[in-house]
Write a structure and sequence with these properties.
- With 141 residues, the chain is mainly α.
- It has 5 helices and 4 strands; from the N terminus they run H-H-E-E-E-E-H-H-H.
- The chain has helices spanning 2-22, 24-28, 49-97, 108-114, 120-140, and strands at residues 30-31, 34-37, 40-43, 47-48.
- A two-stranded antiparallel sheet has the order 1-4.
- A hairpin with a 2-residue loop joins strand 2 and strand 3 (40-43).
- The two termini are 68 Å apart.
- The mean pLDDT is 80.
- Pfam families: LapA_dom (PF06305).
- Keywords: Cell membrane, Coiled coil, Membrane, Transmembrane, Transmembrane helix.
- InterPro entries: LapA_dom.
- One of its GO terms (cellular component) is plasma membrane.
């Protein structure tokens, strides 16, 4: 990926140089920039057009660089926060895994009530379901 980016940059640079060489006349024409705000006025000295284009490109590159630098710092902070959270959760998980089980936490009464004994109603339902299955098997034969 790094070589692909470098290759794209070189292609862009070569195309820009070809553009500037082919358009030397129009790009060399002078340009005066003027800025007026209320009573304040500013007038630049005459500059070739290509210098204005290069300055605009450089300013845009610097502003983009600053934006992405700030974004990278923000994301690095988030990554650090989440790594700390993962580390604390792993520590908690390990402490829970290593916690001994105590018999006093489990009573035998709750375990015996959880297993229901069959009642006569459920016994008859199971028998009738079993007889229906055997009837279906015989009817298919």
């Amino acid at each position: 990926m790094r070589y692909l980016k470098l290759f794209a940059f070189i292609i862009f640079f070569v195309l820009a140089m070809i553009f500037f060489v082919q358009n030397t006349g129009p790009l060399s024409s002078t340009l005066e920039l003027k800025f007026e705000l209320l009573q304040w006025s500013w007038l630049s000295k005459p500059l070739p057009f290509y210098v204005v284009v290069l300055i605009a490109f450089a300013v845009g590159a610097i502003l983009s660089l600053l934006y992405f630098l700030v974004e990278k710092m923000r994301l690095s902070g988030e990554v650090k926060k989440y790594k700390n959270k993962v580390r604390s959760l792993e520590k908690e998980l390990n402490s829970l895994r290593n916690m001994p089980l105590e018999e006093s936490n489990y009573s035998t009464e709750s375990a015996s009530s959880a297993v229901s004994e069959p009642t006569p109603a459920t016994d008859s339902a199971e028998k009738s379901a079993g007889s229906e299955e055997s009837q279906e098997e015989t009817s298919f034969k």
